[in-house]
Specification:
The protein has 323 residues and is an alpha+beta fold. The chain is built from 6 helices and 15 strands.
């Protein structure tokens, strides 16, 4: 898995955790009301409310940051393979932007963005029958890919030549199911499809994933993500084939790569809010770790089998601010 692909995985996983936070805010707000309010009466059009009217005692109006417009900005650093299949590791920055502006959801996609045109604001009131239904996401996806375009640590691989940067454009969509194992968790299924438009690999890739989010107390959360990557022949040939000229320059054996299943990976991220409340914004710290396994010709190419490893590990840590 290349640097930028891993960066995408780290950022996307963190994004999923943060995007799930509005639903978490909705649920924890109900918990706080239950613990602090006095006698309640059922209103004709909604859940019970304080008999005296207004917010229940102890609940500060407006203390939940996730509304129609919110943004999280972050910066961190990760340790990742220097190219797809490398066993050399380099430090790489992990910037982050995620949020909702003008009714459009924004999430990171490596050096690029996913936009969700179906993004919905948090529902009013505590979770109930109307808020426990699946939600959908769909929108354009953009990202740069500069695998083996720089930071090649292996001199033999470097001798084979650097590659051009690709710019991939496509779509990303998915569905999220709330309250799977507990009242506040989320299970998400999504797929991204993109094509290179700069004439680098000139190919297509498909990236399905499954994500699971759950809060761990009021001030922390855990996100797990399992993903796969499928590529076409053009993508595989560009990044994993060894041409006759590359063979002469590097000493590696010639190799012709075909498309198919390219990698499988698992990522875990923990997020901790520094004031103990994920729902009110402010500073948070996150840690990320993961593993991916290159398969097929991505594992068999000499760039991996001779000069690197099919086992790809990565980790990172960062700090973010939500407002």
């Amino acid at each position: 898995m290349p640097i930028k692909t891993i960066t995408c995985s780290l950022a996307a996983t963190l994004c999923a955790a943060l995007v799930s936070a509005p639903a978490f805010a909705q649920g924890t707000d109900e918990d706080e009301q239950t613990q602090t309010r006095g006698p309640a009466t059922a209103g004709p059009d909604g859940p019970p409310s304080d008999a005296r009217g207004g917010p229940p005692p102890g609940v500060i109006p407006g203390d939940i940051v996730f509304d129609d417009t919110w943004i999280t900005l972050g910066v961190g650093a990760g340790l990742v393979p220097s190219y797809s299949g490398s066993d050399d590791y380099v430090v790489f920055p992990l910037p982050l932007i995620v949020g909702r502006v003008g009714g459009v959801g924004i999430s990171p996609n490596g050096p690029g963005l996913n936009l969700d045109l179906l993004s919905q604001p948090p529902a009013d009131g505590p979770p109930g029958p109307d808020t426990d239904t699946p939600s959908f996401s769909f929108g354009p996806s953009f990202r740069f890919r500069n695998d083996r375009a720089d930071q090649i640590e292996d001199e033999v691989v470097l001798a084979a030549g650097e590659l051009d940067t690709a710019f991939e454009v496509g779509v990303n969509g998915g569905v999220t199911f709330p309250s799977v194992l507990n009242r506040l968790d989320r299970l998400s299924l999504s797929t991204s499809v993109r094509w290179d438009i700069l004439g680098a690999h000139d190919g297509m890739l498909v990236e399905p994933s499954i994500g699971y989010f759950t809060p761990v107390g009021r001030g922390s959360a855990l996100q797990l993500s399992l993903g796969a990557q499928f590529v076409d022949d053009s993508f595989a040939d560009y990044y994993y084939s060894v041409s006759a000229d590359q063979s002469v320059a590097s000493g590696l054996a010639e190799f012709t790569a075909d498309g198919g299943l390219n990698s499988l990976g698992l990522t875990a991220i923990g997020t901790v809010d520094l004031d103990g409340n994920l729902t009110n914004g402010g500073w948070n710290v996150y840690g990320i770790g993961g593993y991916s396994r290159l398969v097929g010709d991505a594992a068999d190419t000499p760039f991996t089998s001779v000069r690197g490893s099919a086992n790809q590990f990565f980790g990172g840590i960062g700090v973010g601010y939500t407002f």
